[in-house]
Amino acid sequence: MSWPTSWRPDLSEEADPLDLGGPLLRRLERLTVHARRPFPGQAAGARRSPRTGSSVEFADFRSYVPGDDFRRVDWNAYGRLDRLMLRLYHAEEDVCLTLWLDTSASMRWGTPDKSRFARRVAGGLAYAALTGFDRVGAAGFADDGVRRMPPLRGRAAAPRLWRFIADLDGGGRTSFSAIARAPRPLPGISVIISDFLDEDGPEPALAALRGARQDVLLLQVLAPQELNPELSGDIELEDIESSRRVEMTVTPAVVASYRAALEQHTERLAALARAYGAGYEVISTDQPLDALLTGEMRRLGILR
Amino acid sequence: MRLLAPAAAAFAVTLPLIVLLYFLKIRRPRVSIPSTLLWRRAVRDRQANAPWQRLRFSWLLLLQLLVAAAMVGALVRPALARQSTLSGHTVILLDTSVTMQATDVAPNRFALARQQVRDLVSGAGSGDRVTLVELGPVPRILATANGDMAPVYRALDQLSPHAGAADLQQALALAASVASRGESTRLVLFSDGIVAPLRAAVTLPFPFEYHRVGLSAENVAITALDVQGQAAARRAFVRVQNFGRQRHHVNVEWHVDGRLADARALDLDGAGAAEVTFAVPPGARTVQGRLTGGDFLAADDVAWGVATVPKRLHVVLVTKGNVFMQRALQLRADLDVKTIAPAAYHYDPSVDMYVFDGFAPSPVPSTPAWFVNPPQGTFGVGAATGVGLLRAGQAEDPLLQDVDLRDVHVARSADLGHNSFGGRVLLDSAAGPMALVRESPTRAVLVGFDLHSSDLPLRTAFPILVDHIDSFLLPASVGPRAYHPDEPVLIAPVAGGTMVTVTRPGGRRDNLGLGGGALTPLAYANTDDTGVYAVEQRTTAGVTVSQFAVNPSPDLSDISPRERIDLLGSAPGAAARQTTDLVELWPWVAGVALLLLTAEWLVFHRGL
Questions:
Q1: ipTM score
Q2: 3-state secondary structure of B357
Q3: N or C: which end of chain B has fewer CB within 10 A?
Q4: What is the 3-state secondary structure (H, E, C) of B174-202?
Q5: Of residues A278 and A2, which shows the higher confidence score?
């Protein structure tokens, strides 16, 4: 697939603040965002809708009732069965992809930086959705609320969306209740990108999004220093968000205990996601973005 | 084991400091992380929030304390005496004095020192030479071995400690005499360092190594036992002294002729002393004081005394009147003095001593006698002449001991320059001899001047001089005082004696022959045992028995082991070198510290 030259995005620094780069964008153009289950859209798009419609993909028959569009009567069936039957097709409607970006202070940590990595992932997913004629909305959330951009459509909206994502202010504490309190997004796909390192967990958000008919995917972004800590000796750890301090002597045994606690934490998140019919994946900021978007996301089924 | 740098033990203060550091909060570097959520879960069981929790058992703390202790142990430089360092000729001095019986080390100092000597000798090689010298009251060479050390072992087995002091001066001289010129020789002394004071500085031509034996100074001793008073009311004074630093409770038992007669309890502070008085019943022969209560040296817990009433001696003063002489003679309690006029004199063989003043009998009696101001012609005495100041006839004459003759004048005296009395000059002057003293044929003293012609009777020197002369003329068989082990005892033979026999406390008898009945005192030196000795003197008239006691010397009751042997200030290296042939252990202790440190590192990284 190729675009008309006038539609190619401007990849200058100004227009590509997330530094996605041309090669990656070209590969993303060949991918489309898919929900793991059908859902109704608002405008005709390239996605199958749970509602039957007028596309070419046959769905079912049903008996004619007065008021039905007479043009959809299957006359061949009438000839064989002598009954008026309506031929039903899957409607092809657009998908609304909502990207929820954790903008709390804890995301601005790690090498590579978790916040930047999360924004690049979001930018890539957004671009894939826009080029697939889907609508894409974005929101940054923290304990001070949600800053949201209404859904946009068309690849020409990509630079605007990227700029919004890049310009999301950071700070505050992680709060998934902010998602629950936010206006409901259009039915579609919600991707929550966060480090999920908060006391309360994402359950309020999952419950709210399920009620908003969202196919939810949790992407937990962690820095390599969180997956394999390099701390040792007598130190005082300070929580960036809460300023809470913990004195400890980090020994190999303590590091092993940390890894066990991390594994327990991710298992608990995965179980929670399963309970709400959501997907869940841990990604490390040292993963190549190209491989993540065009490989890992395809394996997860969100991009095809 | 010895500590060569004991001051370094001050570093042990690091041990409580380490414990203290576990109380204190560590100044930890701060690290900002996205969330402490997972870390708090990881250290939930390890975090210490309260000080008392920090004192829970910790392998790290234990190992750090052990490392610190081992490092302090290395810093104090522990050292062991080398066991197998014999080379060339080794002269070993083994102390056998009474203080080596102290039991402050098990089983006692002597046994421990003997074992150390055995250990040292066991390291001798085939070409090594060992000489074993007993450091006792009379040092002697016990054995010399070359290669085969069997003679040394046999001599050690037969050795036992004495009751007397160690004569280090003589032992060092003996050791120096056995060292061959040109041979590599060293001297090793095993002792507690309590030796008789050196009489002169010692210069040793070889290294001198002192192995100290003993630990404690705790000892209580009877330092004196003295029987005093007349026959009717005799009492004994017993002095008990604590030589240690701790308070001691002791019982003083009083035995009369072997039977317990009395007992007293005493509490003695450190370095304290007390005197106890006991009654001596009439007819008692020997008394004994004995301490019970326990200390480290039993040898000085007992002392003996002779309680026999001295024999009364009859003295006749023949004079026209001499109050000075009469009073001076009566000062001795055991003398019955009778004064008669020259006209009343007649010889009485039962009289023990005559004092002739201004009179000379004819014939001269064979009884010991004074002849004061004899008439001219007696013993060849010449006419009276003017004199002046008196002076001693001989320097350090025992009869003039403590007699001060300064400014003593004599106005007139007979000329004794050409006498037939014999003997030696006791008192002299510029004009000639003033007094003579002789021992044969009969003990007698000749004084050439009238006491009234001199200021001598007015001086304190006079009664002292009279007492000395009386003791010379009427010698006791043995002196009345108590003796110390290995001290020679002078025994005065009685007139007409043929045999002197001394019975030791253990019952062993020593016969002392008399050279033709001479009255020269006999020196008896076998007094190495403490207790009561009996002296029997046989004469044609029968047997006279006297006794004397040998008690431990109070100089040896201070059993505190001496840190070093003082060779009277001999310059180290030039005169005597005290070398310490020691194996230092600090490298091993430091190695242990290193191993512990490694273990601590491993434990830290395993997170125990």
A1: 0.80
A2: strand
A3: N
A4: HHHHHCCCCCCEEEEEEECCCCCCCCCCC
A5: A278
